[in-house]
Amino acid sequence: MPWREFVLLSGLLFVHAMGLGAWFVPLATVLDAHGLQSIKPYAFATSAIAALISPLIFGGMADRHFAPVRVLRWVCAATGLAVALAGFGIQQHLNPWLVLALIQLQALCLAPTWSLSSSIVLGRLNNPQRQFGSIRAFGTLGWMTGCWIVSALRADASTSACYTAAIFWGLVAAYTFLLPAVPPLQSAAPLTWREMFGLDALALLKIRDHRVVFLTAALFSIPLAAFYPFTPTHLHEFGLERTSAWMSLGQVTEIITMVALARLLGFWRIKWSLAAGLGFGLIRYALCAMNSKSWVLIGVTLHGFAFTMFFITAQIYVDQRLDPAYRARGQALYTVMVSGLGNLFGYLGTGWWFRACRRGGTEDWTLFWGVLAGVITIVLLWFMFTYRGRGKQTSQPANPA
User: Fold this and answer.
1) pTM of the full predicted structure?
2) Alpha-carbon distances of 107 from 50, 159, 178, 264, 375, rounded to whole Å
3) Banded model confidence at residue 401, pLDDT cuts 50, 70, 90
């Protein structure tokens, strides 16, 4: 790959992830600091509701009607404005339900952005299995940088984090002008209502392995959804104030794993990489259930292994096994399953479980994390018995129809 192409694509994921990290990681502590604990599970669930709607629509647009770069530019600009409005609502102590509506607005704008960026990057790679990991590592660096900037500004519990994230989203929109506007692979023929809403991508689930990977990703996302809303709260109880920076420990191992991913996938079947990600997720929550500062921090550090080995490998799987004309919609369907269905049940379910684990005004962290570790165990066993795969030979893209 030419170095200029590598720099452009890496830079896209870097600035994009800065906006994600600066908004998503401090959100829990910002809501706590402004007396909005009651809407916290619903605030995180807004991203799941949005992910059920936005990605497939915009993925279909990017596949069939507009250049993906142009679609990304529009939604990133809208996301920056919506994030600033949500921060303003929190700062002005507006009605909690109005604040929740503003957070839902930004979630609708934000939801399709990562799948669009991923499809743009993957579409420019000759060998995604070998090239994507090193480029995706810059996204992790961007996430860490966004968290570090928020903590450096002492904005972990301040609406300044929201305004900082809004600036980053403006940078992403501006950055897209540096990228070539590659036209969509399919012609802009009149769309059916199924194509307009991206529902034709559901045909991908007719294929057994596709179905298993998508469903496993959704099921794994349910217990995983507890990580960002409740781990900062757990760390805060141990006296750790700059929680956004401490949470970035997981991104250190994420980068290490992404750099090594090409070599790992060279001699491992995709099945074993996905299973390893599930296993690390199980170990992480088991360590958090031990309820000591050291073990929780080790558990946070293991996040990178769990995330990369499963979710990044799954993205590569989607790119390799699908017809290129379905690439954006395939990534969008993956986003719907993970960030939509998985996170919707995850944020609401773990929010309910968190309240159920309160004993005399204090949290029973051992019970909370222990049960979630048990759920991951069930998901891991189901995946191992249902996924077949194609052996060590990487499969060629196949038309889902």
Assistant:
1) 0.69
2) 6, 17, 25, 34, 27
3) very low
